[in-house]
Write a structure and sequence with these properties.
With 444 residues, the chain is mainly beta. The protein has helices at residues 3-9, 14-27, 138-141, 206-209; strands at residues 50-51, 66-71, 81-83, 86-93, 106-113, 119-124, 149-150, 154-158, 164-168, 173-177, 195-197, 200-205, 211-216, 222-227, 239-242, 248-254, 257-262, 268-273, 285-287, 290-295, 301-306, 311-312, 318-322, 332-334, 337-341, 346-351, 357-362, 378-380, 383-387, 393-397, 406-408, 422-424, 427-431, 435-439. It folds into 3 domains: 1-31 and 67-236, Lipocalin (Beta Barrel); 238-325, Thrombin, subunit H; 328-424, Beta Barrel (Thrombin, subunit H).
Length: 444
Amino acid sequence: MNRQTVDFINGHTAMARKAVCLLTGLLICLTSTASADDWTRFRGQNGTGQSDSTTLPLSWSDSENLTWKTELPGAGSSSPIITGDRIFVTCYSGYGPDSRDLSKLVRQLVCLDAKTGKILWTANAPAPEREDPPQGYIMEHGYASNSATTDGTSVFAFFGKSGVVAFDLDGKELWKRSVGSESANREWGSAASLTLFNELLIVSAAEEGRAVLALNKMTGEEVWKSEAAALELAYGTPAQITRDDGKTELILAVPGEVWGLNAQTGKMIWFAETQLTGNVSPSPLVVDKSVFLFGGFRSSGSYRIKAGGKGDVTKSQVEWYSRSSSYVATPAFHNGRLYWIDDQGIAWSLDANTGETVYKERVPGLRSGGRPVYASPVVADGKLYVVTRRDGTLVIPATDQFEILKANRLESDETDFNATPAVYADHLILRSNKAIYCIGTSKL
């Protein structure tokens, strides 16, 4: 166990643990009004990218199966989230080709009517004291990469150095809290999205504060905070897994390690060393009792690790390691296979049980130069929906043979599509740096 891990374990206070107990007693009667059909966080239910829809469209364009289109007040790479008939998405404006003054940068949370696309309200984030300069990957993903989350009653947005802000569904600000204003050594900007666990709002402020925090979702008060220098360059969103003893673990991948934390207290339960060095961008993917990890410098590998251990589980819980990996996108799971398209335009499928490659194929039709895919795939009705940055959304069968069933482009929008889609009432919700789209074959 390295020193950073030791610092992380020791980064808890007795006050935090007492607060957890008090909050649990006070809030145990509270229930979420979010429906199981809602898309309440990045990649939907527990970040799996899975949808039960069987009628998502196979093809679309500016004139086919486009239910509505709404121009957004700003750009962003964050994904839409949905509760009831409301869509929420974060944006940034005031900075771009026509304005290079960071003091004019504004981050926003936008609420839209999911049936019509009408913007119901827009809320601005507080201005940060300082911001990372427009360089490196910030020039690609921008200043709004963190997806919001909702419990069906409130919506929570993470605006990086501008902090975390809670609103009711009508746009009234409930509370706000700073989670730090630091930068990683590369100054690539914030990335991790918010998640909820019971009464706690989980914030991976790896960029801003080298910390993972749990906030009281009702008040914004800090319940626990765990700090570690090793969190630098950890850009993924923590996943959750329920142990056999009923406790919930937060799974977080950092450069060189993966951690299993007690979600209620933040205390580390287990860790494993990995070869995922450098920045780790994909989020952990949980399937049953196993965790799949990807990422690292030059896509340094992938792992399957059995959750539920204690202490150092490097030798006991690692089920396989493969040199195949994804650098940005979080893969999807379907019928014992893992699927993704990497940042070099290669389509992959791995056997989830063994880590062996099922296929590795260069995707035809992608423009050369740059990184063609940032978004993570979504799975519905045995098909993968993969949003490329500049060449439309690919529909690919989730089988052992790679093929493209359809490549759907919205020709009127020449901006980048960096966001992972959401699913609403058998419709696909896409967002670009210009607009948000509702795609479907039926009326809403």
